[in-house]
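Researcher: Here's the sequence for the chain we discussed earlier.
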Amino acid sequence: NAVLELEKNSKIILYDNNLEVGTNKLKHSKAETYIRLRRNALWEVKGGASISYGSTIEILHHAKFTTGFFTMNSFSVIICAKFIKLGEDVMIGRNVTVYDSDFHKIQNGSIEETCKDIVIGNHVWIASNVTVLKGVVVSDGSILGNCALINKNVNINQLVTGDYAQVVRRENVSWKR
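Model: Thanks. This is the structure I predict for it:
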């Protein structure tokens, strides 16, 4: 129940680690996991990954996705139009969305940049139903709380929540798997 599509000159580079796709599938489920690399896309898997059933990773034309070890729970979506980096030991909950682009040009006098890099540090927990938007840096040890909309940088070891306005709830937090 996994679909892998690699277009011309796209690559997945594994650095001596496991890439598990479609894990934790429910018995008799038909939910598929989708991995799609468009033309000249690159995914560097530096630490391995466990991607649950029903999730999607799409790396668009000429884009680069770099990952340390991470886990991605069911029905989460990562679409990389330019550059996304996940550090080591990133835990992604259910129904998480990570987009480094608006995918359409927005004009208001001048044209805004549609793509901006996303960098997610080491040992970051992204809880369920979180949306991470373009141009964000999430620092090491942070927790992105359930249903948070992340559109600003997150400092080291912060717990951030908020569905409309991103709010720092706690400083100097830590978490364990």
